[in-house]
Amino acid sequence: MRVEIISKDKLLIYINNAFFKDETWEDKEKIIKTIKKYIIRLKNNYHIKLRGFYKVRAFPNKKIGTFIEMERLDEDDYDNIELRIIVDFKEKLFFKFYDYDYVPNNSNYILYDNFYYVDIKVIEENILDFIELGEIVYERSIPDMLWKGKKRYKNILI
After folding, report:
1. pLDDT tens string 70-80
2. Is the pLDDT confidence value at 141 over 80?
3. Which of 51, 90, 104, 116 could pair with 97 in a Cys bridge, judged by C-beta atoms 3.0 to 4.6 Å apart?
4. Last residue of a domain, one of 38, 54, 87
């Protein structure tokens, strides 16, 4: 699990597939219950102060796990935590590489703002091998990337 606190009102959470061993990816209600369980565990076990009403967007992916964006919408009227969870199966996930040398061989990538974006679906290697070399981003978080980025192909013959 990887947690990144962007601000006091925004968190990004990545939960890899190892945490979801027995979960099904087709049942939206089960996914919502599982995400609630992990957010409560995060609050209790890691002592992250979560209080208020949060909009939670979850992007489950069979290959890598679930990417979660939490944004606090209101804090004043709440003593505890309330969650509105939206599960998005259609959002495209990309891995944002910081360095060209780590972009997988024989893969398409998009060069945008000096970063290299590869669609997670086409990465054949275990994504956990790359997790420290970049970050997982979703399409809506980088709206200009798809139409302003330069599409390239990395082909290195060994």
Report:
1. 999 998 877 78
2. no
3. 116
4. 87
The 10 Å Cβ neighbour count of residue 57 is: 17
Tell me the CA distances in angstroms from 117 to 16, 55, 64, 108, 143, one per residue in order: 20, 26, 16, 9, 13
Contact (CB, 8 A) for 92 and 61: no
> Of the residues 55, 87, 119, which one is the last residue of a structural domain?
87
What's the mean per-residue pLDDT of the chain? 83
**Buried residues in 20-41 as b, exposed as e (16+ CB within 10 A):** beeeeeeeeeebbebbeebbee
What 3-state class would DSSP assign to 61?
Answer: strand
Q: Both 11 and 73 in a single domain? A: yes
3-state secondary structure 64-80: CEEEEEEEEEECCCCCC
The per-residue pLDDT for range 47-93, each reduced to its tens digit, is 788 888 999 999 888 777 788 899 999 988 777 888 999 998 888 88
Q: How buried is 139 (Cβ within 10 angstroms: 0-12 exposed, 13-18 middle, 19+ buried)?
A: middle
Strands 52-61, 81-87: pairing is parallel
Average pLDDT score over residue span 123-146: 77
